[in-house]
Design goal:
- This protein is mainly β.
- It has three helices and 24 strands.
- It has a 22-stranded antiparallel beta barrel. Strands 20-21 form a two-stranded antiparallel sheet.
- It starts with 45 loop residues before the first helix and ends with a strand.
Length: 569
Amino acid sequence: MNYGFIKQKNSLSMTHSKILRSSLFLLALGFSSQFAIAQRGEIESQTYEILKDKSIEFAPADRVFDKVQPVKGETGKKKVSYQIVDPEINIASPKLTPAVPASSDEQSRKDEPDVLNNYVKAGGGNYGRFLGEIFVGGRPKEDLAFTTQLKHLSAANGPVDGKNSANAATSFKIGGKYIRSKYKVDAGFNFDRKNYYFYGYKPQPEGVVVNRDTIRQTINQFGFNLGFENTDASVLVDYSVKTGLNTLKDRYNASEIDWGTNLTASVPISETFFALLEADAYVSQRVDYFTYNRNLFRVKPTFKYVNEMFSVSAGINAVNETDSQLDINRTKAFPAVNLDVTPFSGVHIFAGWNGDIVRNTLRSMLSENQWLGPNVLVMNTEKTSDISAGVKGETGTGINYEGKVAYTSYKNFYSYNNSLSDTSRFSAIFDPGKTKVLTISAQAGYNFNELFKTSLKANFFDYAVDKVEEPWHRPDLTLNWFNALTISKKLFVTADFYMLRGLKAKNFQTGEVTKLPVIADLNLKIDYLLTRNFSAFVNLNNVLGKNYQRYQYYPQQGLNFIAGLSFSF
């Protein structure tokens, strides 16, 4: 093992493809995504969170991007609204030890004429758990909308040594949208504070008390974002500009400032031929024992041809990255070729050959593994080649599906493992050689008249590392199963099941390699509408009661619950 490569990993979650006003305009923004591992937080029901935001969305105007669709939807048929998120480098690990999502009953009432969008929620449970949340949204004018949310979730005790594994999280978010006939402006501010303890220490002899102050960690994050997008269909050039500033500071005087700006544009050359441009600029500074100035600039021009049977795009992804501490200043070019064929309505066969440099930041790494030690070095990961193919589709009976196979080659592929100097803290181990990852993903979903929803997603991974022993703490199989059932107008039930297999860890002090047990996490949530304004909820998390370890020496809480009331207004 070459410990010189024990660096901080980046949540190499590459949200490369983000649909902008059209199912075929893919945004390669390189942000960390969705499969970030929140070691202690709760599973937020992303479905419900999205619906809440949509409650004050405005209908977008027709735009030039609409012409870039591979297949024009038939009248009366639903647009395919499902997608498998590519497991970039943060290999599809779901959030575990869930928390309290937005109430199902609150979301189900969104379709009612006199809807109550705002709510106050409070609850408590075992382990000294407390939940407090308030959400307020409004539309003071027809073209102006805003949302505000304040949430606190904490546990006074944890799975190890009582208060020594306590945790608390507080977040505040405010956002607004201003939409006119020719443009849209949106802005937002968020603050997150997390307080927790490194409880993965060795068992102490009887009578020995661990000083909580020496194992405490506090992370404060601030973020601001601003976006401008033209919505005038009569304008030839379609474009969108977004910028965001994020700051982070922990209890050990580590800090990070990260500013990113993203531009997307589309110019129709003819009815079926388009010129597309994506450009990103990221300027960041990481301060710890050393100060690191890290920048990344990306330009991705592509051309796209579209007709009713297929669409094909081809271009170059040129990326420049600099790092003052690592003495890096290099520019790389990668292919950007994608094909989508529709042999018949409702079915898409797709393939692609792409590459990129995946940004890793301290913020993205901590979102994936909060047990990172101090003075960690952050490096970007080069995805030299990503060859993929698959099929996706939707039937008229409410069934949708997607299957995909990808073979990806990385440089500086990372994994996490317990540090050599302190096994209760983690380091990111980067493989400087060529790492090959085979990914097979499959997903299927079914909706029945909004009364029952289910989706099942599985990912299989095969790793071929080069200069390191193993891809420590990376699963070879993940399974996510979500279900939502509306029993009546007053009773709603959701169930989530998560499974991870194939995790390996090593104690570098003893040389012992451990295969961690399979993780199986079942969570249930029940909402009951008492009156038009009041509802009761019960969340049962980790119903199987397993003190599983996503990361070595960090067992999770067993069966835990939160029960409470919600008032909507």
